[in-house]
Design a protein that fits this description.
The protein contains 13 helices and 6 strands. By secondary structure, it is α/β, with parallel strands linked by helices. The chain folds into 3 domains: 48 residues, no CATH class; 182 residues, P-loop containing nucleotide triphosphate hydrolases (Rossmann fold); 55 residues. A 6-stranded mixed beta sheet has the order 1-3-4-5-2-6. β4, α9 and β5 form a beta-alpha-beta unit. α1 runs antiparallel to α2. The protein starts with a helix and ends in a 15-residue tail after the last helix.
Length: 315
């Protein structure tokens, strides 16, 4: 099929809301593109995301709507930059999940609770999503600060509802900013909210203990030292995600460059140093340079002439 025919067919089936045919045309285009094609990469990425985006929303229990977000994992584990020690622990965790039946048969519990700690912007949410993607499970995200601020006075019952709703089917339940309510300081002081915070902590500890192992609980905190020790003890794994060192930065940069082979990230971009930055900060700086490079290349072309540029999806 010629390129113009593919475009027309794609437009027609999209207007007819014929999703299956749209997918077929995209696959046809992909098969005719060289391996180094940015179009091939972007279409493959879109196709891998589309089914899960719809399916995960449908999997969200009705009782959890408004309290929990069903999110599509953004990256695979292979694309996630981790310290070597954490990478080894993740592999152990996934291997034990893969052999859950054998572990159960021996009378042992299967680990299913992971605590992530580290400064903001260094991959805690990304890792939770990568685990969900690796296990082909929906990712349900709860933000403690949002739930508490919205429902203070009945937060304990809301959290209990979240946990009990999540057990309906296998999933990854991600709890961010756990120190917001599960700190050592909860229950101390003269605040009128102390009683409510005590009830929240007690409720959450009880619900964590009750959680069946077909639900993967991933907790995240920016300040592990603030968490109540009783909370930390309830997790099977504890992984720290620090700010990246120089080796991690360079490894991340090589991974990123593979996603955009038409942009000379490794050869033309000024050197990127760790300098105490988070991975999120580094990614923002690299994407900024990529955008400027594309604009400069476009500005250098003679007036009236255009040349295809790779689509740069900057998220």
């Amino acid at each position: 099929m010629a390129k113009w025919q593919e475009v027309l067919a794609l437009a027609r089936y999209a207007l007819e809301n014929n999703r299956d045919q749209v997918v077929n045309i995209c696959r046809c285009i992909i098969s005719n593109e060289p391996d180094s094609s940015s179009l091939k990469y972007q279409l493959n990425r879109l196709l891998s995301r589309a089914p899960s985006m719809m399916a995960f929303q449908e999997l969200l229990p009705k009782d959890l709507k408004g309290l929990v977000l069903a999110m599509e994992p953004g990256m695979t584990l292979a694309d996630t930059e981790l310290p070597v020690s954490v990478q080894a622990q993740v592999e152990i965790f996934l291997e034990e999940r893969a052999h859950a039946e054998a572990i159960h048969a021996a009378g042992l519990a299967v680990p299913h609770k992971v605590l992530l700690s580290g400064p903001p912007g260094n991959g805690k949410t990304t890792l939770a999503g990568a685990i969900a993607k690796e296990l082909t499970l929906p990712l349900f995200v709860v933000d403690f600060s949002e739930v508490v601020s919205s429902y203070l006075g009945e937060s304990g019952s809301k959290f209990a509802k979240i946990f009990r709703g999540a057990v309906e089917k296998p999933c990854v339940l991600f709890l961010d900013e756990m120190e917001t309510v599960l700190s050592e300081r909860a229950g101390h002081g003269n605040s009128t909210e102390v009683g409510e915070m005590k009830r929240i902590v007690s409720t959450l500890l009880m619900e964590i203990d009750r959680l069946p192992d077909h639900v993967i609980l991933v907790g995240a905190t920016n300040h592990e030292e603030m968490l109540d020790r009783a909370v930390v003890r309830r997790f099977d794994f504890y992984w720290e995600l620090p700010r990246p060192d120089e080796d991690m930065v360079q490894s991340w940069l090589r991974r990123f460059a593979k996603r955009y082979p038409d942009i000379p990230i490794l050869t033309a971009m000024p050197a990127i140093a760790a300098d105490g930055k988070s991975l999120s900060d580094i990614e923002r700086d690299v994407k900024k340079w990529c955008r400027r490079w594309i604009v400069e290349q476009a500005a250098r072309r003679p007036a009236g002439k255009t040349s295809p540029q790779p689509e740069l999806v900057l998220q």
